[in-house]
Specification:
2 domains, mainly alpha, single chain
């Protein structure tokens, strides 16, 4: 079955947006399965060209039979045949109307299914975007907290260093004073 989009390009796009290769491949695999399932459902409701041609040939052979009967019975039962012909025309019109109604119904169902899938995909993208935004916020908060902690530790180290330098100077001045 042919796909109408490039799965590898979608995997690459997802990877560029922060997904791992495995996550990207799983997402694309899920999308392909969803599309295949929807296409299977759509194909179940569709009439194939062969079936349509068979039905058309049956109708055409039925019409051909009616024409033969009209020629044979033209003299004796022409009026009865004319009324039967009218009935057949009405039945054909009804069948045609039913077929058109079914085709319209199938098209509407397919459009609805496609729109539902589009909205599901959009919702999935929105959820992924929200999760990514939340993760970015958490990372930013953690980074800010670490920067604050680092600055605090730097300040403490400077205090201890200054205290150590002054203590050493005091001791050195004390020894200097004792020797002089």
């Amino acid at each position: 079955r042919k796909l109408f989009f490039d799965t590898h390009a979608l995997v690459c796009l997802l990877e560029e947006n922060g997904f791992t290769t495995q996550q990207s491949e799983i997402i694309v695999s899920a999308l392909v399965k969803i599309m295949n399932t929807n296409l299977d459902m759509i194909y179940k409701d569709m009439v194939t060209k062969v079936q349509q041609e068979i039905a058309l040939q049956q109708i055409m052979s039925h019409i051909g039979g009616v024409k033969k009967d009209m020629i044979i019975l033209e003299k004796s039962e022409f009026s009865a045949l004319r009324s039967e012909n009218e009935k057949i025309k009405l039945e054909l019109l009804q069948i045609k109307k039913q077929v058109m109604d079914e085709i319209t119904k199938v098209r509407a169902d397919n459009k609805l299914n496609l729109n539902l899938e589009k909205s599901r995909v959009k919702e999935l993208h929105a959820q992924q975007d929200r999760a990514l935004t939340q993760t970015d916020r958490k990372i930013d908060t953690e980074v800010a907290g670490l920067k604050t902690m680092l600055e605090s530790h730097k300040l403490d180290n400077i205090k201890y260093l200054a205290g150590s330098v002054f203590t050493c100077l005091t001791v050195a001045l004390g020894f200097y004073r004792l020797w002089i």
